[in-house]
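Per reviewer request, we include the raw input and output of the structure prediction for the construct analysed in the revised manuscript.
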Amino acid sequence: MTKLETATHISLIALCCLAGGLLIEQRFFRAPETQPGPARTLVGREVQLPGADWHAAPISVLLQISSTCPYCNASMPFYQQLMAVRQARTAKVPVIVASTDAVAIMRKHLEDEQVTVDKVLHSRPDVFAAVTPTVYIVDSHGVVQRAFVGKLDAAGEKELLAIVERGRV
């Protein structure tokens, strides 16, 4: 073999090892924040959240966030945009925040981030998915119609904003 052929074979072997390693890392070592499984299990289920009035509107937006969650904090500009879209509607879609944080802490955090919501409620960790942030679209019967898990990409943000603009799923 020539030196060029040897170098080519070594490069191909290294490239295959790198690709295999990336596939294994993606499959087995993915962070739990990117796994949407827990939220999907709630679609179609009734949400039991004391203090939430699901009958107030055809749909409600339920944000499951935490003041210490980096993905929640990175999503705050989107939540500001969501609230602006909601304010522009004549029939407003209620936005409720559910958090394992104390209500006063979450209210202060939202105030600091300039995100104004209708209600902040405390929830037990076992009520929802363990993944934050998660956005649920809940119908007037308290049944989850749609769930958005983690920090949304542009397509997810656009879809959620469209639902709020329409006032229905």
